[in-house]
Design brief:
The chain is α+β, with helices and mostly antiparallel strands and 210 residues long. It is built from three helices and twelve strands. The protein has helices at 18-29, 95-104, 173-182, and strands at residues 8-14, 34-39, 44-52, 55-62, 84-90, 111-118, 124-131, 143-146, 163-170, 189-191, 195-202, 205-209. Strands 2-3-4-1-5-8-7-6 form an eight-stranded mixed β-sheet. It has a four-stranded mixed β-sheet with strand order 10-9-11-12, covered by helices on one side. β11 and β12 (205-209) form a beta hairpin. The two termini are 20 Å apart.
Length: 210
Amino acid sequence: MNAIPARLDHLVLATPDLATTVADFTRRTGVTPAPGGVHIGLGTRNHLVSLGGTAYLEIIGPDPEQPEPMGPRPFDVDTLATARTVTWAIGPPDLDAAVATARARGYDPGEIRPMSRRRPDGILLQWRLTDGDTQHPSGLVPFLIDWGTTPHPTASGLPATPLLSLTATAPDPDEIRPLLAALDADLPLTEGPVGLSFTLDTPRGPVVFG
C-alpha cells in the first residue's frame, strides 16, 4: 500500500488557536503557512501549505474577527484542547458517482453540500463536499470534495512541504478498511487509538504531525 493515498486532496489539522498552531508549524518546519481565507458565517479561517502536486494541508481554527456562529464550528474546533489532525479529503473524478458507488457498497459518505471561502485577495472559492452524520466519526474515512470550476487552493502558489507519508491507527482496523474500500481510498492502517499522522519533508528535515 502506498504511503500517500491516491487522489488525496487535503489533510485537515484543526486547532483551538490558529495563530499559535501556525507559529508552531513555522518553528518546526521552517515554512510559514499562507493565509487561506475566511469561512463566512462558520466562525473559522485557515492557513494552507502545499503537500506537493494538487494536495495541501489545511490548518483551520476559530476566526476571532467573526461573531460567534449560530452552530458549532467545523471540525469540532471548539472542543479541541490542542491541535490535531482530524480528517482528510479525496477528490474523485465524479463526486456524485463516487457517492452513489459508496452507498451501493454499503457506506454512506453523507449528503453533498456547497461550501465557500473568500481568499485574502477577495476571490471567492466555491466547492462541494460530503458532509453529514452518516460519515464515520473517527475522521479516518475521508470526506469527498469537488472544486468544480473554482481555482484549486494549490493553484495560488502556496509554500510547500512535500508529504512523505500518511498513516492511521484505529482500535479495530477491520471495521475501517471496508469503508475505505467503498470509497476506493487507500490508507495505511494499524491497531491503536484513533489517530491520523503525517510526515512532511521540510527544510529542517522530516517532521511528524499527529
